[in-house]
Amino acid sequence: MTGLNLSEWALKHRSLVVYVMIVAVIAGCLAYFRLGRNEDPSFIIKTMVVQAAWPGATAEETMKQVTERLERRLQETPHLDFLRSFTQAGLVTIFVNLKGSANARQVSDTWYEVRKSVGDMRHTLPAGVIGPGFDDDFGDTFGIVYGFTSDGFTQRELRDYVEDIRSRLLQVPDVSKIELLGAQDEVIFVEFSKQELATLGIDRSTLLAALQSQNIVRPAGTIQTGRETISIRVSGSFQSEQDIASVNFVAGGRTLRLSDIAQVRRGYVDPPQPMFRVNGQPAVGLAIAMRDGGDILALGRNIKNAMARITADLPIGIEPSLVADQAVVVGSAIGEFMTSLLQAIAIIMVVSFISLGFRPGLIIALAIPLTLAIVFPIMEMARIDMQRISLGALIIALALLVDDAMTTTDSTLNRLAQGASKVEAATFAYRSHAFAMLAGTLVTIAGFIPVGFAASSAGEYTFSLFAVVAIALLVSWFVAVIFTPLLGVVILVPPKQESSAAPGRIFRFYRNLLTLAMRAKWLTIAISLALFVASVLAFPLIQQQFFPASDRPELLVDISLPQNASIFASETAAKRLDAALVGDPDVGHWSTNVGRGAIRFYLPLNAELPNSFFTQAVVVAKDVAARERLHAKLERLLAEEFPSAVSSVAPLGLGPPVGWPLQYRVTGPDVERVRETALRVGQIIATDPRTKGVNFDWMEPERQLRIRVDQDEARRLGLSSQAISSVLNTVISGATVTQVRDDIYLVDVVARAIDEQRISLTNLRTLQVPLPGGRTVSLSQLATFEYQQEYPLIWRRDRVPTLTVRADISGGTLPDTVVDALSPAIDKLRATLPASYGVAVGGTVEESRKSQASVLAVVPMMLFVMFTILMIQLQSFPKLFMVVSVAPLGMIGVVAALLLSGRPMGFVTILGVLALLGMISKNAVILISQIDAERAQGKSPWEAAVDASSSRFRPIMLTAVSTVLGMIPIAPTVFWGPMAVAIMGGLLVATLLTLVFLPTLYVTWFGDKGASAPSSS
User: Where is the signal peptide (predicted)?
Assistant: First the structure.
């Protein structure tokens, strides 16, 4: 290769290069401390929630008139993957899910389009529809959550303190938003007896109008004088419930005070809003979200300091509790990873010192921090935080980045041994290996292309693996050709002529083995191919997995009561769960969300929207071992104490959220046929002993009281259905009349009947309905009562009713295994269904397949880039074929390692296997380049193959051993373990095959002249 020799340039400008090295180290240290810290890499939850309400409508009316109209328009959304909605009586919630390929800018633009397009069709919705409203912050993560309990304080007093704390914490740097949890809005109830109103001849509408007209805010004008402007204010607005109780109004010629005919009291919304409990006590929570790009460790310190000052000012009786603290989790995780990184560095240094000696090992030892010192500032510029993926990528890259430095150092030592000067030896490595190393580095990076460009949420989640590895490998090449030669000139000395016995024996053994393999070339090739075929056949024996469970100590406990259950029933269930957790030695602390799921305190959390029948507790065990014990105890408890509820206990997951591990979606136009099919699917799932807790996301109908009005009689009396519905709503649920403006709160004034008349169903028959003219008539005189059934909740997917059959899986079995076992029975059922009905796999398996498909879609680009780089370097189709034939042989080691260790083949493992192709190809291309260099000296293909393989044996084996041993620290981890095991096994086997199979293939292709050459050196 001709052109600029970077090593020679570096040696001619030593002072400048040393200066750059010093600056790089300083910049790296500064960047390391400035890099953001987080638990998981940020990825966009590509979901918007659209909600609309139509008070008074049935579920079927809401679905046909509101859900259907909205979904038709939303199906025109750009980048749409699918719509998912659930419809309740008078309420619709639609999830707009975009394709995984949509980038951040496209997601933002799409949400703007959704708002605009729905706004354009809002006029087509029925009269009385409220909304639609939009929530595109569905993916916000609130990593720090505090709960505040009180003793001796009212809910309002507690909320006042918490609101004040919220205002102060919003001023803390890096805080983006704070949500209140469990706060109950105050309400002033005006409760009257309908019999007493009828006896006094008081018209309910007159009473309500009197309240509204007095409390209204209207301008009364201003007076301009020669000196000033004077605003005129008219009194009468309500300041408290006493002002309302004192209202006088005229009825039947008499002046009455409201307190004489109604009870006026301040309370809280009825039914309650979603509630929050901490360690079994009612609480108000503060959930704190960090701004994008912030440092969660710095935020945690700042919040902790601010809370220490705030707590000192709190009165005795109000107690703050730290419910979720992502800063502690991240600090612990980063500490563990940094320990693993230092262990990996130490292992690689020890390998280098033992195999190369002190001085060459010292060069490798210095190359590692130099490379990392340059990588950190680039990560900072690329806005890559220190998190689970990037830290793992650093460890993987660490094992690879020493490869070039080892090659350069080994080449320099060999040249010095031949009597060359230090400068000539240092620059020779660049001339002989630099471009082969660069090609190998680029091929290795190309192996990570599917990681970086997979168009899915899982690909977005793991993107920083590609970015960090690519940065580190490119930097390592520059370090190897610029800094390493300079260090070699300073540190290395010509080796003594006599080499140690051990390397000689290893070399002789390898050359004998290689010669034997080359002589039995067809047997060598056949054995290699047979092993590869065996690994392919054994591949289905490996369990499949999407992402593993987290190693955090939390457990999510979900309790779903029948879907017509009230929030009071959910609160009762929550209290029973709290009672079981009190005093358990494995429990650190817990929080309970009644009527909703936990706020997204952890990015991959599968967040649940508010529903009165749903309760979710976050139980934090004292450690992971305690979590496992607690898991078993809670499953028994839920089975025994909550037999009618759909319940589950699960640790936090990693990767994009998917919910229940086993899911089947049943779709079709007729709801009853869908229910029937879903029941059959549930029966099939229940036949597998590995499944448990089979349930449905909706199924059971609820009771409904239907009041059939005799319209002729109603018109004769001067009534309408609207008037009757208005009376019923006011009496039973209550009607908001006006609002009291109390400090920062708006307190609704709700008029309704007293409790005993409001709650009793039998009292409805005797309900007095006011007639025009002041008379009243009982409701039973103009209406009949009957019970009916309707579905409280109906899910749809892409406008088709969809019922999801869900189940948990016991014992360590993976969802893919169960789905494969159930496939014959499900396929048989599917074949009996009409064309418009379907049964589709959902949940973990579906998301895994989508993510794997997104990776496989990029594999052609990866292969194109790899082939192009190899062709530029080798410029020979036979040699390209040889490199390509060696790369897949790594599967032999991958399959063996995963089967022996019992590790699953997950999404991250697949990425590692693809990256392994690049690592193997790098060794192969450098070895072939070395063989060509030997042949250029006039050697036969046989001699060139043997000599080149022998000279490359040490650096190739050294790199492989360093890579394998360097991954030991992350091999036991939950997330990286399977990938590390796969790479360790695959690289070891592939390295041996590269050093034996590839030379054999080379001489087979190019001829075996010299086959009788001596095998020893």
Answer: none
pLDDT of 649 strictly over 60? yes
pLDDT the model gives residue 752 = 81
- Residue 154 to residues 149, 160, 267, 311, 858, Cα–Cα distance (Å): 11, 10, 11, 19, 59
**Alpha carbon distance 117, 114 (integer Å):** 5
**pLDDT computed for residue 460 by the predictor:** 78
Q: Is 713 helix (H, G, I), strand (E, B) or coil?
A: helix
Whether the CA torsion 531, 536, 540, 544 is positive or negative: it is: positive
The answer to whether residues 61 and 54 touch, using CB atoms and an 8 Å cutoff, is yes
Note the pLDDT tens digit of each residue in 720-769.
777 777 777 777 777 788 888 888 888 888 888 776 666 566 677 777 77
Residue type, 902: G
Q: Which residue has the tokens 């979900």?
A: 558
Burial letters 146-178, b for 16+ CB under 10 A, else e: bbbbbeebebbebbebbbebbeebeeeebbeeb
C-beta separation of 751 from 190 below 8 A: yes
Length of the chain: 1017
DSSP state of 135: E
- For 524-540, the pLDDT digits (tens) are 889 989 999 999 899 88
At residue 1017 the predicted structure's pLDDT band, cuts being 50, 70 and 90, is very low
Per-residue confidence (pLDDT) for residue 276, from 0 to 100:
94
What token pair was written down for 100? 């995984």
Which secondary-structure segment (H or E) carries 116? helix 104-121
Pick the closest to residue 44 from 97, 129, 104 (CA basis): 104
What are the φ and ψ backbone dihedral angles of 59, each rounded to 5 degrees? -65, -40
Alpha carbon distance 580, 635 (integer Å): 12
Map out the domains of the chain with their CATH numbers.
Answer: 1-14+383-495 (1.20.1640.10), 504-541+876-1008 (1.20.1640.10)
Number of Cβ within a 10 Å radius of residue 668: 23
- Of 117-131, 133-147, 622-636, minimum mean pLDDT range: 133-147
